[in-house]
Structures are given as structure tokens and as C-alpha cells.
Automatic annotation (TrEMBL):
This is Type-5 uracil-DNA glycosylase. InterPro entries: UDG_Type-4/5, UdgB-like, Uracil-DNA_glycosylase-like, Uracil-DNA_glycosylase-like_sf. The keyword Ion transport does not apply. Keywords: 4Fe-4S, DNA damage, DNA repair, Hydrolase, Iron, Iron-sulfur, Metal-binding. It comes from Streptomyces anandii. Belongs to the uracil-DNA glycosylase (UDG) superfamily. Type 5 (UDGb) family. It comes from the Bacteria. SUPFAM superfamilies: Uracil-DNA glycosylase-like. Pfam families: UDG. Residues 66-244 form the Uracil-DNA glycosylase-like domain.
Length: 264
């Protein structure tokens, strides 16, 4: 774990470092060393120091949380940021919090995950054809990164999508924050965004052309499986499954629901 005595880095650390890494493995390792956002570095380490009572025996990860899933995934899922006592504790994105419980259960139900639960790194979870990532890799207070923090973190996501690009066909975008954050990233990567700007919504779909002869990219919007959205039933497990299944279909991933059928 990083010591709180370490200083933060200059805000351009991601912009200087991300373009130089040559693989997702290197990228994930580089992300985990990032200390470019002073407020988020302080918050992630404070959460690890104070802890939640239920997790007092845990040694929190307390670092940036990289993406998770294979490097040749045709489907990417982009969320918001790690939770202070979820990914920031376990070191794996969407792992150990209610959002992750909902997301991985849905992925399992549609055959894209090896198990319905995600509790810790090393719990055996595998993803099939799916890579999950976030535009902000450190847990923010109140789950609200600033636009400055989002922009500082952007080069990590830009490089991740670049490395995924040979196989990437579809991005399922969970929430309006990720939808906004992706726009400049996709434009920088050469994909053409339609005008007028596509508006986020659950089930919104956009096809982005790649004028360089690259493969077009589908974007599918979906509500974020936050505890709030799930408890108010703004997003139900069936809605989440449907939007993920739509992404998987566009990515031409095989349908292979597990034997028990979806849970409600
Ligand atoms: S949010 Fe991103 S840029 Fe900021 S410290 Fe974390 S990994 Fe680095």
C-alpha cells in the first residue's frame, strides 16, 4: 500500500505516462502508482485509515483501481469511479459494493461472468469478452469527481481504449458522467461523434464511424447500477441485464445464460 508520507505527483503524470505504456498489463500497473489528484489521494487513504466497521480487518487497497477483464474484449463497460469501501478496499473495480453485486450478477446471468459474486481479488471471477473500466480511477468523496479530476485521469482511459481498439466493438456506458467523460476520449481516438451530440439515456444507442478505416464503434447508454438507482428501481436487475445483453449482441458475443436462468 502507498504510504501517506508519499507526495502527490504533478497533474500531468497520466498524460506523460499513459502514451508510453505498451500493454494493458503495463497500463494497469502504471495506473496503480498514480497520485496526480491531491484531493482523491487524500480521500482514498483516509477511507483506508478510518474504514467501515464491517471491514475493520481489511487492509484496504487505497490506490487507483485499474480496469478488469481481458485485453481482447469486444465489449467494454465504463462506469464512474471506485467506491471508497468497495473497489478502494478490494483493489478490483465494482468489487465489494452493492453496485458491483448488481453488475456482476447481471453479467453472470447473461453468461459474461464466471460467477455472480465479486468479493475480492482472487475470488476466481473471470469475465468473458468484457472489460470493465472507469473514467476516474480513484474513489471520490460522495462519488463525485470534479471535472478537473476527470480531465486529469482521462489519459488513462484514452490509452486503455486505444489498447482495446483492435477487438473493441461496443461500449456500454453506465451513467451520464461516463457518457460525458467518453466523448473527448473517443474523439481523440479518431471516432466521429454524430452531431447534434448524442444525449445520454437508458437504452440510447449511437454508432461512431472511424474515418481512418477502423471499425465503427457502438455506444449503448444505461443507468448506473448505483445503490440509489437500484433501491428506487430506477434501474431493475432486468433492465440492467437487457442493456448489457444488447451490448453483448452488438459485440457478437455468444449468448450463454447459466443453467439456473436469470434471477429477478
Ligand atoms: S483519479 Fe486518476 S489521475 Fe487522479 S490520482 Fe487517481 S488515477 Fe491518478
Amino acid at each position: 500500500m502507498c504510504s501517506s508520507r508519499q507526495t502527490t505527483q504533478k497533474p500531468d503524470f497520466p498524460a506523460r505516462t499513459a502514451p508510453r505504456v505498451g500493454s494493458l498489463r503495463e497500463l494497469d500497473a502504471a495506473i496503480a502508482t498514480c497520485r496526480a489528484c491531491p484531493r482523491l489521494v487524500a480521500w482514498r487513504e483516509e477511507a483506508a485509515r478510518v474504514k467501515r466497521r464491517a471491514f475493520r480487518d481489511w487492509e484496504y487497497w487505497a490506490r487507483p483501481v485499474p480496469g478488469f477483464g481481458p485485453s481482447d474484449a469486444p465489449l467494454a463497460i465504463v462506469g464512474l469511479a471506485p467506491a471508497a469501501h468497495g473497489g478502494n478496499r478490494t483493489g478490483r473495480i465494482f468489487t465489494g459494493d452493492p453496485s458491483g453485486d448488481a453488475l456482476y450478477a447481471a453479467l453472470y446471468d447473461i453468461g459474461l461472468a464466471s460467477q455472480p459474486t465479486a468479493t475480492h481479488r482472487g475470488d476466481g471471477l473471470e469475465l468473458y469478452g468484457v472489460r470493465i473500466t472507469v473514467p476516474v480511477h480513484c474513489a471520490p468523496p460522495d462519488n463525485r469527481p470534479t471535472t478537473g479530476e476527470r480531465d486529469t485521469c482521462r489519459p488513462w482511459l484514452a490509452r486503455e481504449l486505444e489498447l482495446l481498439r483492435p477487438a473493441l466493438r461496443v461500449i456500454v456506458v453506465l451513467g451520464a458522467f461516463a457518457w460525458q467523460a467518453l466523448r473527448p476520449v473517443l474523439a481523440e481516438a479518431g471516432w466521429q461523434l454524430p452531431r447534434p451530440r448524442p444525449v445520454f439515456g437508458h437504452g440510447a444507442e449511437v454508432l461512431l464511424a472511424h474515418p481512418g478505416g477502423g471499425r465503427p464503434l457502438h455506444m449503448v447508454g444505461g443507468y448506473h447500477p448505483s445503490q440509489r438507482n437500484m433501491s428506487t428501481r430506477t434501474l431493475t436487475p432486468a433492465m440492467l441485464r437487457d442493456v448489457l445483453r444488447r451490448g453483448a449482441d452488438l459485440a457478437e458475443l455468444p449468448a450463454r445464460p447459466h443453467h439456473g436462468g436469470p434471477r429477478c
